[in-house]
Amino acid sequence: MNKDTRLSGVLHVLIHLGQVSEPLTSEVLAGTMGTNPAIFRRTMAGIREAGYVRSDKGHGGGWALARPLSEITLLDIYLALDRPALFAFGNRSVEPECKVERAVNTALTDTMAEAEALFVRRFGEITLDMLVPAQAAPLAVHAHRQSDGD
């Protein structure tokens, strides 16, 4: 099963945007996410609409932070991506009248709701500046890896 890596990829991009003073193109940033520019722009649309980044077209254009990393939380980005699923399993609904199935579904639903509430609370406590490594590699490292086929 494929995992949804949009949240991780967008956080990666935002932290790199916090390290530069000039806007970066969709092509450059798409490379850091291992995708193409069109998918990158589609993924970032909600982040832009929420006001965390801005994008300008034309010469000298590109993507830039609209707010400092210290003002953006993991929760902000999670919500801007329309709350990607945290869990990959769901409830069975073959026999809705079965008491065992209902008990299992209730236990799973309640537990997942509690776990999601914990994620949401913790995501709200972590700002993106807290994720910046002391010795972060420059974005050029990603461009080099892309050209090597990594």
Major sheet description:
2 strands, antiparallel
Helix content: 40-55%
Assign the CATH architecture of the domain at 6-87 and 128-148: Orthogonal Bundle
Secondary-structure element series: HHHEEHHH
Task: Tell me, rounded to a whole number, the average pLDDT.
Answer: 88
The Rg value, from CA coordinates, equals 19 Å
Tertiary shape: elongated
GO molecular function: DNA-binding transcription factor activity
Protein name: Transcriptional regulator
InterPro entries: Tscrpt_reg_Rrf2, WH-like_DNA-bd_sf, WH_DNA-bd_sf
GO cellular component, one term: cytosol
3D structure, described in words:
With 150 residues, this protein is mainly alpha-helical. It has a domain at 6-87 and 128-148: Orthogonal Bundle (Arc Repressor Mutant, subunit A), CATH 1.10.10.10. 51% of the residues lie in helices and 5% in strands. It contains six helices and two strands; from the N terminus they run αααββααα. It has helices at residues 6-17, 26-33, 37-49, 74-80, 99-125, 140-148, and strands at 53-56, 62-65. The chain has a two-stranded antiparallel sheet. The two termini are 22 Å apart.
